[in-house]
Design goal:
The protein has about 160 residues and is an alpha/beta fold. It has one domain (about 10-165): 3-Layer(aba) Sandwich (Rossmann fold). It is built from six helices and five strands, in the order H-E-H-E-H-E-H-E-H-H-E. It has a five-stranded parallel sheet, sandwiched between helices. The longest helix is centred in the middle third of the chain and has 28 residues, at about 65-90. The radius of gyration is 18 Å and the shape is globular.
């Protein structure tokens, strides 16, 4: 099993709702994977956590259980939508021999990605760049910047060319 693992490459691609992440996935399929290499492509989507809530809202009315269920269903629907788009990108590429796995996590994206990459024993992590400016990055933080400092495997950040925007 260990010998088989050595020959197989595990590439984790972090995907989200953005065009940048789909471009990074497409770039990965066209540039990192070849039909001759035994590889597993792991599509990783991280759902944001549900906001903390109280059973009472600001007007002291009880939250109905269906409100919370609706929020959970929205998160599941978003995950399904992202994964469907990612699968379509994979189908459109000519990499039919590549094994594709889908993983969905919940929480802060930067933490979930770092833990998943370690648990999956990834050989490389591929992410798209949202290309935030200095101020937006300072306020929001950069998931790829955090991952570059905390993942134990190489990280490839793919920047979408301006002419495609």
């Amino acid at each position: 099993m260990e010998m088989e693992r050595e020959m197989e490459k595990r590439i984790v691609v972090a995907v989200d709702e953005s065009e940048e992440s789909m471009y990074a996935l497409s770039w990965c399929l066209n540039n990192l994977l070849s039909p001759n290499t035994k590889s597993t492509l792991v599509l990783l989507y991280v759902k944001p956590p549900l906001p903390p809530y109280s059973s009472l809202d600001a007007t002291d009315y009880l939250f109905a259980g269906d409100v919370i269920a609706t929020m959970e269903n929205y998160g599941k629907g978003l995950a399904n939508s992202v994964m469907s788009r990612a699968e379509a990108v994979c189908r459109d590429s000519n990499t039919t021999s590549i094994k594709v796995e889908k993983k969905v996590g919940t929480g802060d994206a930067k933490d979930v990605i770092c833990v998943a990459v370690k648990k999956l024993q990834a050989d490389i992590l591929v992410m798209g760049s949202h290309d935030y400016g200095f101020f937006k990055r300072a306020l929001l933080g950069s998931v790829s910047d955090y991952c570059s400092k905390h993942v134990e495997c190489p990280l490839l950040v793919v920047k979408r060319p301006k002419f495609l925007v």
